[in-house]
Specification:
The protein is α/β, with parallel strands linked by helices. The protein contains 5 helices and 8 strands. Strands 1, 2, 3, 5, 7 and 8 form a 6-stranded mixed sheet that branches.
Length: about 200
């Protein structure tokens, strides 16, 4: 596999569009990456999702950095997201947090193509706090990854009704913007939780 370089994206155009973001010092978000062999994810596709997520997060003066992925061969029962499978995976192969896991599918019902586990919704499953789970069937993977990372950074499951906002409940290529208030909240909460430097 090709050597992974840190994924860092900072788009001046996006920063200008966000108004006050230029006044903010740039912070770095380091994300551990775990790809399950046989999940349908390739390193190239995961890198593409990370690059696009980094571009989206740059509007909040955040640079996304991802180290070389941990590629795991796991038993078939761990290829799909469920709380039990995620716990087993996290215990057997601990990684730094926040972490993005690229898995085959989900056993959760209702089924989501991507899922975020923040601190606020991990009281009964602390082993998987500060993680994002991306299924191979996810549409617009970079947008979905950015959306789920914002849930983790804000430690909130809240969505927005604002047109074009990244945090609308349905992710799409048209929903990429974050408001100044959202940027401030995610930066403040993530810094307080030790996720930004």
């Amino acid at each position: 596999m090709a050597l992974w370089r840190p994924v860092r994206a900072l788009s001046l155009a996006l920063l200008l569009a966000c108004g006050g973001a230029l006044a903010q010092p740039q912070l770095v978000l380091s994300v551990a990456v775990v790809i399950l062999e046989g999940s349908g994810w390739t390193g190239e596709r995961a890198r593409g999702a990370l690059r696009e997520a980094g571009t989206i997060l740059s509007q909040c003066a955040i640079a996304l950095e991802a180290a070389a992925p941990l590629e795991l061969r796991v038993p078939p029962d761990l290829l799909d997201f469920s709380t039990a499978a995620a716990r087993d995976l996290a215990r057997a192969h601990p990684v730094a947090r926040p972490a993005a896991y690229f898995v085959r599918d989900t056993k959760s019902r209702p089924a989501f193509e991507a899922e975020a586990i923040g601190r606020g919704n991990s009281a009964t499953r602390p082993e998987i706090a500060d993680t994002v789970w991306m299924t191979a069937s996810v549409r617009d993977p970079g947008v979905a990854l950015a959306h789920e990372l914002v849930h983790v950074l804000m430690d909130s499951g809240e969505h927005s009704d604002e047109e074009g906002n990244l945090m609308r409940d349905e992710t799409s290529r048209q929903n990429r913007r974050l408001s100044t208030a959202q940027c401030a909240r995610l930066r403040d909460t993530a810094k307080a939780n030790g996720m930004l430097r």
